[in-house]
Amino acid sequence: MRSGLTVRARLLATASVIVAVCTGFGGSVAAAATPVGPARPIAVSVPPDPTPIAAGTSGTALVRVVNPGAAGVDFTVTERRVVLGDNGRVTLSTQADPRWRQLVDFPSGVVNVAAQNYLNLPVTVHTPSTLAPDLYYIGFLVTPINSGGGNLQVINQIGSFITIDVPGPRDRHLQADLSFPDIVFGSHASGTLTVANVGKAAARFWGETDTTSTPGRAVPTQDRIDKKLSPVGTSRSFTVTGTPAWPIGFVTVTAHVIYPRHTESSTQEIIVKKRVLVVSPVAVAIAIVGLLAVLYWMRRRRRKRRKGRRARRNATGPTSSRTRVGARS
Amino acid sequence: MYAGDGPGVTGRRRLVLFLAAALVGGLFVLPASPAGAAALTNVSWTVSNNQVSATSVTYGYSFKTATTTSISSVTFVVSGAGLAGTPTIARNYGIPAGTVGITGQTITYTVSTPISITAGIPIYIEFAGLTNSSTAASYTTVVTTKNGASSIDTATSPAVTLASSNTAVTVTVAKSLTFTLNNTAFELDMDPTLSALADQTSSIGMTIQTNAHSGYTLNVNDSAAGLQSPATGTPTIAKVSSGKGTSLAWPGTPAFGYTVTGTGATIDGAFSASKYAGFVSGAGEQIASRSGATGGSADTITIAARVAIDFTVATGVYSDTLTYTATPNYT
How large is the angle between the packed helices A317-328 and A281-315, nearest 10 degrees? Predict the structure, then answer.
């Protein structure tokens, strides 16, 4: 079976050589290698919200592995330390998280998911009794196992993580900053709202940006920020825009960032405000055209006056020349 | 002299009389304002579960203010009896941060630092952790904005029916990522005699689809040994570069490297202008990413893994394992 594949591969390789020679690209274009492995789709799903597990107890989160392909897939699930970065970035380490060693039960060994099928894999987490209330992240890799031949093996693995919530009051602390230029030459002002978690616990925040324009729009335009997770030491950035009601105007952007501080029954709010002068190029163009028009009108008027004066002078020419002559003499 | 003063005095008297009348009128008008509270508009009430006695239910209220004034609290008086639970604030838009409390059928949202809110502002407040009444019936909520003890605007929400005979539908969409590979293995039969057989490319097609709001990252790594032969001396075919940081145009033989193209995803700039990089073992390197969900159309990413040999490369079977890791970002 395997040698058959190799023979076919050689035939295909020869065919590609013929094509290459015929098209005259023999030396410069790389020939194509022969695929000998099947296509393999795989999907991994995790719960969208944290799974609440009290400290000192156990709980289970379900990880779903889906095989939409036409052949069964063997895979393994291995624990990995997860590092959450700015703006939702997730990085998985090459090692398991020592903090969760022997506290998380992942499915062991090789698991098979049949074609066009799925498996709900329970991941049991045992939380230490000393664990402080917070959100915790447990990373893992779902790695398909290659079974066929071929000297260049390719593996498509999926990394993901589950979030557990150890309930209880916690100390969340966020900071927000609104960065805008003072003056913008354009149709709108665009800036960045950055929310940083400077506290000791993860926070899920939401908020809005309200934009008003002077002159022209006193009632704010509300843009809502949906709930976002902000792990400790990370930040989130949002692009905020504001358009003046007139070609020239002050745009005031007020950002509200809201999050539960200690418990979920009371929220804390951060308000940051920025005022930007927005000057539309159209307004500048109109002003320049207007200025040129005024200058042209003034010049024309001056010319007209000169012309009129000259005409008047010519009309009363002899008298004036005589006067001048007289004056000179 | 006095005649001249006459009209001025009359004018002042008129002014004083007018101000007094306005003051007296105001005194009558002011206490009447709560009774004349304006109506909130666009009031809606949604519940996450309409089964009687259901716990951990989320109530969401949205409305628009009718009066420009300072709002210090909002009360939500649910009709009937049996409302319970410990509400928490799940979201609030259009109104400053605050605290929530429940007394009987009244949920009170108290603003921590009241500010003036313009008329027509859309407000949305969502409470989690509530327990529905055990009585199957149709319920409404009277929503009232307040400044201290005085009511500002009020309105009654459309009815919500709590029942035991209906079917509560709760849809939870998991955070999911699908990763498809078009081929899991390649055979490269190479021969240095003929240039076309001495330079071959394995084209690896991948598709990634995710509903993660912040998108995903795609990393690649290979085995620590690289493209290696088990023959005596375990010879290897050299990597084209030490990683994507030193990517370059294909330098010729002998070399092993890859380049990336794709649609939908943001391909790392190291691979622009068909530049090639060597695979990195261990943690590998990020080659593509996306900052938002893919939606209905999957991203397609193609890796061209290229091997070129000459007569300096020892004969034998060389093999390597390329591992691609797709990881959805968090929301």
Answer: 80
**Sequence-distant contacts of B81-84: CB under 8 A, at least 24 apart:** B81/B105, B81/B133, B81/B135, B82/B132, B82/B133, B82/B134, B82/B135, B83/B107, B83/B130, B83/B131, B83/B132, B83/B133, B84/B130, B84/B131
Q: Using the beta-carbon criterion (under 8 Å), do A265 and B181 form an inter-chain contact?
A: no
Residues of chain B in contact with residue A29, where contact means CB-CB under 8 angstroms, are 196, 199
Domain A174-282 in the same topology as domain A37-166: yes
B317/A contact by beta carbon, under 8 A: yes
Q: Do B199 and A258 touch (CB under 8 A)?
A: no
Q: Is a pLDDT exceeding 90 seen at residue B187?
A: no
In order of start, what are the domains of chain B with their CATH numbers?
38-162 (2.60.40.10), 177-328 (2.60.40)
pTM: 0.75
Give the residue ranges of chain A where pLDDT is below 70: 1-32, 317-329
- B47-65 pLDDT, tens digit each: 988 889 999 999 999 999 9
Options 2.60.40.10, 2.40.240.20, 3.40.50.2000, 2.102.10.10; which CATH number does A37-166 get?
A: 2.60.40.10
CB contact under 8 A, A42 and B178: yes
